[in-house]
Specification:
The chain is α+β, with helices and mostly antiparallel strands and 193 residues long. It is built from four helices and eleven strands; from the N terminus they run ααβαββββββββββα. The protein is globular.
């Protein structure tokens, strides 16, 4: 009886099967037609090399499928630059706050999603934002540019969708502030860089 309880506890802790693990991953949606011109789709050679190194395989072994949307386990569907249309329904649903384990929050624009078919690993193709400054007393997060380095992240690392606001002061020529909206709670909890 004791062994049965221990096995049941271990099964509950580890999960029942690989299928359960697959069902706990975000769902990639809307396959991308690569005959259209999307920035960074398919992956540029240096990102493809980086991905192969990350997965521990040769570049020739990668079998990549590309997607324009991702439905996380909880929260809103995340879009990409490839999925943007000029409608109020999905406008700018590609701006995100993301955080890898043990790191501070970062911000970026999602350009697409991919899955390596043999390994079933999923990644989001992100262009990082730079010059992030936070003032938690004033409850403001600001950024300088949206043209930072390219990176590949696990879609599970996406904390939330964010919005942007450009504030100008007509009394001071040239003064403007680019602000991030919607990520105050994760930044309070984990910080930002």
């Amino acid at each position: 009886r004791r062994q049965q309880l221990a096995l049941l506890s271990l099964t509950h802790y580890l999960g029942d099967s690989g299928e359960d693990e697959l069902s706990r991953r975000p769902v990639l949606k809307n396959p991308v037609n690569l005959s259209r011109c999307y920035e960074q789709l398919p992956l540029r050679p240096y990102l493809k090399r980086h991905l192969a190194q990350k997965l521990g395989v040769e570049e020739s072994q990668l079998e990549l499928s590309y997607f324009s949307r991702c439905r996380p386990l909880a929260g809103d569907t995340i879009g990409s630059v490839a999925s943007q249309q000029d409608t109020d329904v999905n406008r700018n649903d590609c701006f995100v706050c993301f955080r890898r384990a043990g790191e501070q929050c970062r911000f970026g624009t999602i350009y697409g999603f991919l899955q390596d078919e043999p390994s079933q690993h999923q990644f989001a193709i992100v262009k990082r934002w730079t010059g992030i400054r936070k003032d938690l007393r004033a409850e403001e997060i600001r950024y300088e540019n949206t043209n930072g380095a390219w990176c590949l992240i696990d879609p599970c690392d996406i904390q939330c969708l964010v919005g942007t606001l450009l504030e100008t002061n007509h009394g001071h020529a040239g003064w403007r502030a680019k602000m991030i909206i919607g990520a105050l709670e994760p930044v309070k909890k984990y910080g930002a860089e």
